[in-house]
Write a structure and sequence with these properties.
This protein is α+β, with helices and mostly antiparallel strands. It has two domains: about 5-115, no CATH class; about 120-320, Sandwich (Immunoglobulin-like). The protein is built from eight helices and 13 strands. Strands 4-7-2-1-9-12 form a six-stranded mixed sheet, with no helix packed on it. Strands 8-13-10-11 form a four-stranded antiparallel sheet, with no helix packed on it. Strands 3-6-5 form a three-stranded antiparallel sheet, covered by helices on one side.
Length: about 325
């Protein structure tokens, strides 16, 4: 069968009322983004997806499901392909809509290459964040250099991202700067319209914009006075989320060099991961490197990383639930 004929025959026909973004990604792929969008549309945490698969007699771990939807791994084994077909039924998708995005089977033992464009880079490429920032009339750090940032992330008893707060020290490199634009991207299934924004110290909340399809929210943090070039300002703000499913990592992107960055991830006692690690990427399209295992300590139980001088790229902490 010619490729064109196959594509025409298997083009999904989605029920009326289906999310247009999901419809589009089911047509074009890639697989991991389509799977992630479908799970988000059904608002199913990964442990529930795993439960539904087990009812079909298929055993797939939550970690494997997480890797599939991140693009870190692709289903290849016979049992994995059975799981993908079952997922089409569980997620109420047209037959063959996911399986066809995997393309021809890869021979066993073939090394898997890192995904070329992870989900977060696709969101950035879609222009959603740029569009929201343009609506506010400014990039997130216009006129400011970040001297230091301490970010605290809280994971709740249902393994969900409950919220996060950030304390920043910034220095103005031109006169007249009076605001910072904070960006929050929730996990799959996030409802950004239900995320609360809190100006906690030395700032107040200005305009807020969000995009429901990607779970992205941007919010102005307004200062009480305009900074002059060279002046510093310390402020703190937070986001209360809790609207999405199971969380498996937190990633922070940096557009350029900056000061110290501290990331702390705390977990509810009812939901402690079995492993945690830090990682880095030069870009969203690059493979992950610098993996280092982290040990849970303190009360509440938490892990952290410290980067004395950040560079352009991404830093994050990931964790496995089983």
């Amino acid at each position: 069968m010619r490729l064109g004929e196959r594509h025409e025959r298997q083009k999904p026909h989605l029920p009326a009322g289906r999310d247009p973004a999901l419809e589009a990604v089911l047509r074009t792929g890639p697989f991991h983004l389509a799977l992630r969008a479908a799970i988000a549309a059904r608002r199913l945490p990964l442990h529930r997806v795993q439960h539904h698969l087990s009812r079909h007699g298929i055993k797939v771990g939550v970690t494997s499901l997480s890797y599939w939807q991140q693009g870190a791994r692709r289903p290849q084994r016979t049992e994995s392909m059975r799981a993908v077909r079952a997922l089409e039924e569980i997620l109420e998708l047209p037959e063959e809509s996911l399986i066809r995005l995997l393309g021809p089977a890869v021979p066993a033992g073939t090394p898997q290459r890192p995904a070329a464009r992870p989900y977060r880079s696709l969101v950035a490429a879609s222009g959603v964040i740029d569009r929201l920032l343009a609506d506010l009339g400014a990039p997130p750090v216009a006129g400011l250099h970040t001297v230091g940032r301490h970010e605290r992330v809280r994971i709740g008893p249902r393994r969900q991202l409950l919220g996060k707060d950030s304390q920043l020290v910034v220095r103005a490199h031109r006169d007249g700067v009076d605001r910072y634009v904070a960006v929050h991207q929730g996990d799959p299934g996030c409802s950004p319209g239900d995320v609360a924004v809190h100006a906690m110290e030395n700032c107040r909340t200005g305009r807020v914009r969000w995009d429901g399809g990607t779970g992205v929210l941007v919010a102005e943090m307004l200062f009480d006075a305009r900074l002059r070039a060279g002046e510093t300002h310390l402020f703190r703000y937070g986001f209360e989320d809790g609207t999405a499913g199971v969380s498996t990592e937190y990633v922070r992107g940096f557009g350029g060099a900056g000061g110290q960055y501290v990331l702390q991830v705390g977990f509810a006692d009812e939901a402690l991961p079995v492993r945690c690690h830090r990682f880095a990427q030069q870009s969203a399209a690059a493979p992950r490197a610098g993996r280092q295992e982290l040990t849970l300590t303190g009360r509440p139980r938490s892990v952290h990383l410290v980067e004395p001088q950040v560079r352009a790229g991404l830093l994050g902490i990931g964790w496995d639930w089983e």
